[in-house]
Design brief:
By secondary structure, this protein is α/β, with parallel strands linked by helices. Helices cover 35% and strands 18% of the residues. Strands 3-2-1-4-6-5-7 form a seven-stranded mixed β-sheet, sandwiched between helices. Strand 5 and strand 6 form a beta hairpin.
Length: 224
Amino acid sequence: ALRLEVVIALKTVSHAKRRLSVALTDDAREALVVAMALDVIASLSASREILAIHVICGDGWAHLNNLPPPVRIWREPDGHDGGMVGALEWVASQVDSEALLFIHGDLPFVDSNDVTLLASAAALENAVVSPDRSHMGTNALLRWQSQSLPLAFGENSYARHLAVMETAGLHWREVTTAGLEMDIDEPADLQLLADHSARLGKHTAAWWQRYGDCLIKDATQKVL
């Protein structure tokens, strides 16, 4: 069976998810960023397919320092200026693994079953891509060491990843699940936390218990 290593890049907490600032205080926004990342890491840690979880992060992530193996924390090297993709590729260059899974830290509904599906889809050395709900962004990408597949996270990354794989003639598969699709980027996305609260990981569920009431308007019972 395929045994994967994972790479996650986490922005400096105070800079993360700035688009949520119109709906959340800075404290609530930063707490949500941390809660979602902890839930993603917990789901990965619970997956039997995962050998190691490499987390490269900016400032404000002291919460991660005491996480047990298979988590390993990386700090970006001085002078590094490649954005998130550069950070991910830098860690990838330091890791000797037959296959790497790159996944975002803002997927509060992801669980170990989603990880199993990603690993299964990678059989026979398939690359694997998981789009967001809009099929504009990429929330997870699995790449084999043997494949020439530069990361294209960012604007329209789903289309760009597909184009790269097609051009390179790679065998690839798409995995789409609710857990992998539902990222939290925009204020409207906070409604997902209300609509699917029973599916939240424990850290984001605790966040919702603390802050959710502030987001729900009495008149409509809708977030924002």
